[in-house]
Amino acid sequence: MQIRNLILLSFLAVALILTGCDDGVEENGREYPDPAGFDITLDGAAIVTYENGNYTFNTDLIPEYEYEGQLIVTMDHPEENVSNLVRTSQDEDDPADRRYFTPSIYIEFFDEGGDFINYPEEEDGGEYRLEWNRHGDESMGMRTAQLEQHGSDGSWGFHIRADYETQAFPDGDTDLFFSLQYCEGGFEYESHDDPQDETVECPTGQLQLFEASSPLQVYVDEYELADEDGRYPHERNRVR
Fold first, then answer.
1. What is the pLDDT tens value at each position of the chain, 240 positions in all?
2. Which residues contact 232 (CB under 8 A, 6 or more apart)?
3. How far apart are CA 107 and CA 189, in angstroms?
4. Could you tell me if 182 and 29 are in contact, meaning their C-beta atoms sit under 8 angstroms apart?
5. Burial of 168 (0-12, 13-18, 19+ CB in 10 A)
6. Spatial distance between the Cα atoms of 176 and 218, rounded to a whole number of angstroms
7. What pTM did the predictor assign?
8. Which residues is 87 bridged to in the sheet?
9. DSSP string for residues in 202-229
10. Are strands 70-73 and 216-220 parallel, antiparallel or unpaired?
């Protein structure tokens, strides 16, 4: 009987040791769980939440970013009568030298329990990277939205920029698909002379952990014409 109890205690001790070694590490070997959805936030408040293929706007908190089920980028909201675009280079008289985009907004991924996942920043050697794809009817000359990241935005912040406009098509729609990529050991970057030309590689093979199954629809409302081609100049990294 004593031998049997000793064997059971030994198995229990081994199990406790193994459990302690695995603490904080996912079964797939990654430290952080895969996301189930995300919030797009401004100043800590969620503009819109994505989960199970659906987007839910929190209009009670930030009404100026939603219009008819889309995220709107505008200088004059049809209902709120406010602008959600920030103009830089305030003293520039030439419209071609002006830039308009939203304040810094952030994507915050959450797990199946709804808890925020604090993925590390890329500059800290993080193995996780935000990606996005943009779809819009540019062939017809319609202005679309664009995303850009500034240095202060980190890995998970960005701006939505009012990008294209022509006199024939003064406004336009853009579909934005967000995804989360993983690279074991961290991504490698190589910058070139062109500030927008940045090569990103994953020596171990890039793995897509998450991709939204439906797009965030962004409507860019009519605004001041940027230049004769309807395009704002930009020299920012990670404009994709």
1. 554 544 444 444 444 444 444 444 455 668 899 999 999 999 899 999 999 999 999 998 889 889 889 988 877 788 888 888 776 655 566 655 566 788 899 999 999 999 999 999 887 778 999 998 876 554 444 546 778 888 889 899 999 887 655 454 445 678 889 999 999 988 887 776 655 566 788 988 899 999 999 999 988 776 554 444 444 444 444 443
2. 98, 99, 100, 161, 162, 163, 226
3. 22
4. no
5. exposed
6. 7
7. 0.74
8. 100
9. -TT--EEEEE-SSPEEEEE------STT
10. parallel
Q: What size, in residues, is the chain?
A: 240
Residues 6+ apart with CB under 8 A from 30: 127, 182
The position carrying tokens 């706007």 is: 57
Q: Look at residues 219, 224, 72 and name the one whose alpha carbon lies nearest to residue 136.
A: 219
Write the burial class of residue 123 (CB in 10 Å: 0-12 exposed, 13-18 middle, 19+ buried): exposed
Residue tagged 């990529």 (tokens): 181
